[in-house]
Specification:
The protein is of the alpha/beta class. The chain has two domains: 2-151 and 341-404, ATPase, nucleotide binding domain (Nucleotidyltransferase, domain 5), CATH 3.30.420; 154-334, 2-Layer Sandwich (Nucleotidyltransferase, domain 5), CATH 3.30.420.40. Helix content is 36%, strand content 23%. It has 13 helices and 14 strands. The protein has helices at residues 43-54, 61-88, 123-130, 140-144, 154-161, 203-213, 222-226, 231-238, 258-267, 277-300, 318-327, 346-359, 367-370; strands at residues 2-7, 14-25, 28-40, 97-99, 103-110, 113-120, 134-136, 166-171, 174-181, 192-200, 307-311, 332-334, 380-382, 399-404. Helix 1 packs across helix 2 (61-88), helix 6 (203-213) runs antiparallel to helix 10 and helix 10 (277-300) packs parallel to helix 11. The longest helix is centred in the N-terminal third of the chain and has 28 residues, at 61-88. It is globular and about 60 Å long. The chain starts with a strand and ends with a strand.
Length: 407
């Protein structure tokens, strides 16, 4: 089954894609990555999406409906481009499914409970433009059953980490962690899984860099490395009640926004304008590292001693990585491929994997990781009966083997 996974992410940098061929042999799921890449957002559309995500004001209904349509059209263009490129390379294998979670605008969390989520990117636009079935709204089924709807990465993480367990961390706009503890019942059992969003990832760092320097990010963490952490500000930020919540928990950039930073600083009597750019970035980088380390320590009840595998944009920030290693000295911190999966395509690959699970009637979210009352098959299919000939499965794969066959 050929599936195209799309992911735009909270950083709104680009639409990442992974084109994957799936086949199953007993308990083993084989995944062959055929192509991957990224398509930058049209600058005007990106600006409108960022305004909707980060602005303190609520977009009008007129703007929301247009954004839903325009993001859907942009994603349809990505699908068309990927399909055409595959054909030019001589592939006549049909594309069975596109999985597009859309662009999350708001993740509504109150008192640690996820009430609802809103993602835009009309899947009907994808199907109308390409004729390919599209799976969208992938988080809502879990939320409807009392879950957080995120992170969804534990489905993939537990397969990649294997029976020995470990911790998989992804640092995008928001940072999340999947802690897999080997089950006591034997090496063939799946690991026990706990997961959650630990707090800000690159989102606040990027926003501060853009505001202060006009650049998209603090490249290589260079400015943060040249600064000093403002301890009073850091303490004020870490005092936010979210950080004390146990796993599972979920958040987003709509919560950890520049407005949140300004409000916490004001409450502590700190004028951010008098902080140097370097000191502000050093403090925000430390916040990401501390929130991650503190969450893992709280979950295990002691100093974690495990392998910690980091992916996402944060893995390319040496200053941030150095702080994570310093705060978790008993962990073996690694980056790069895990289970032969290119870390730069992990999120798009995850969407393709969720598509495979949904197409075969398998739950795509781990309830131990999201807190849902029961497992759910994820997503809404457009058109509804597009995959009616795909046979349903009664058991999930126990092992994932990834083959990278990209040219």
């Amino acid at each position: 089954m050929r599936i195209l996974g799309l992911m735009t992410g909270t950083s709104v940098d680009s639409a990442d894609f992974a084109l994957v061929d799936f086949s199953r042999d007993g308990d083993v799921l084989h995944a062959r990555v055929k192509s991957s890449g990224e398509h930058p957002w049209p600058e005007a559309l990106r600006g409108r999406v960022l305004e909707a995500v980060t602005s303190a004001s609520v977009p009008s209904l007129a703007e929301l409906t247009l954004l839903d349509a325009h993001v859907g059209e942009f994603l349809a263009g990505v699908v068309t481009s990927v399909r055409d490129d595959a054909r030019e390379l001589g592939s006549d294998t049909p594309l069975d499914l596109v999985v597009s979670p859309g662009q999350t605008l708001f993740h509504n969390v109150e008192g640690g409970r996820t009430l609802a989520t809103l993602a835009i990117g009309d899947a009907s636009r994808i199907h109308a433009a390409t004729g390919i079935a599209a799976l969208s709204t992938v988080r809502s089924a879990d939320i409807a059953r009392g879950g957080t709807g995120a992170p969804l990465a534990p489905l993939l993480d537990q397969l990649l980490l294997g029976p020995d367990g470990g911790c998989a961390v992804n640092i995008g706009g928001i940072a999340n962690a999947t802690l897999c503890t080997p089950a006591a019942v034997g090496p063939t059992a799946p690991p026990l899984v706990r997961a959650g969003d630990t707090g800000p990832g690159n989102g606040l760092i990027d926003a501060a860099a853009a505001l202060r320097t006009g650049t998209a990010c603090d490249t290589d963490g260079a400015r943060a490395a040249a600064g000093r952490v403002h301890d009073t500000l850091l303490s004020a930020l870490l005092a936010d009640p979210y950080f004390a919540l146990p796993f599972p928990k979920s958040t987003g950039r709509e919560y950890f926004s520049p407005a949140w930073l300004d409000a916490r600083a004001r409450e502590a009597g700190i004028d951010l304008d008098v902080l140097s750019t370097e000191n502000l970035l050093a403090t925000l980088t430390e916040l990401t590292a501390r929130a991650l380390a503190d969450a893992l320590k709280a979950e295990v009840g002691h100093e974690p001693r495990t392998r910690l595998h980091v992916t996402g944009g944060g893995a390319h920030n040496p200053t941030l990585m150095a702080r994570i290693e310093a705060l978790l000295p008993a962990c073996t911190v690694t980056t790069g491929p895990l289970g032969d999966l290119d870390p730069d395509i992990k999120e798009a690959f995850l969407m393709a994997l969720i598509g495979y699970y949904s197409a075969h009637g398998l739950p795509g979210a781990l309830i131990d990781a999201t807190g849902a009352t029961e497992p759910a098959v994820l997503g809404q299919l457009t058109p509804p009966h597009a995959l009616r000939t795909v046979p349903l499965s009664t058991t999930a794969p126990r092992q994932l083997l990834v083959e990278d066959s990209r040219d």
